[in-house]
Amino acid sequence: MTDPLPLLEPGVPVAQARRKRARWLKLLLADRRASISLVVLVVLVGAAVFAPYVSPAQPDAMAFDMLTPPSWAHPFGTDDLGRDLLSRVIFGARISIFVGIVTVVSSMLIGVLMGLLAGYYGGWLDTVIMRYIDLQWAFPNFIIAVYLVAVFGAGLSNVIIAVSLAFLDDFARIARGMVLTVRERDYVEAARALGASDLRLMLRHILPNSLAPLIVQATVSVSYAILAEAGLSFLGLGVKASTPTWGLILSDGRSFISRAWWLGIFPGVAIMVTVLAINFFGDFLRDVFDVREAAVEEGA
Fold this sequence. Notes:
Elements: H1 14-30, H2 32-49, H3 51-54, H4 85-121, H5 123-137, H6 141-152, H7 156-182, H8 186-193, H9 198-206, H10 211-234, H11 246-253, H12 262-288, H13 291-299
Helix pairs in contact: 2-4, 2-12, 4-5, 4-7, 4-10, 4-12, 5-7, 6-7, 7-10, 8-9, 10-11, 10-12, 11-12
């Protein structure tokens, strides 16, 4: 049985690491679904980063041609205020993708730290941390995010905080499970015998060799975070009304959906395509890192 992340294990030659990267590239090219997903994600991120240069108009620029269907002038049509829907969808990608990435990075940092401490030290610290995680697991993540936004108030920063806190339990559980397995490896015991401190053991030897399932979970969690932000914005609990996001665009257009179908179709398709691309690429990473085999090994 191979390690889930052999590249990070001490002593792996550079040549072997290069062969591993070449094998991963070959697998990516052979997996058409993952390749297409990666291209879609690159295009979406590029459009979000360069939104002011690729969008045909400003997202809040109003005109008199209101609720016009898709045309050459407005490929996605216009909304009830005459704003170009394609421009709003492109600018909405900036907020949705930004929230997805920042919230996952934040929840991963907090959750991994909690799982690392719980798995390494055990005892009362493990009990306290994991009972909190169990309590959070009793509620759906979106419900927790709605509650936290209701407490903190609407706004981009509050949405990021709320979604980050709602998703940290998954990372804490995975990190703790991997730490319980990796801390018994021979190279960890050897480093401990040589006098390595607890901090060095956790950061240099245990955490790098526990990253495989965490990377996969982070990839999938980005799609969940994007859906959570869209749901909060649709309910009016997300960003300010002046900030275009996919969920807010859907919320603004629901009153006109019966006579302006494009107001719901295009932002909805943007959410669907983004989430599917992230999930498909996450499946590819799971297979590359052998996360299922690592889970079987851990259970054994």
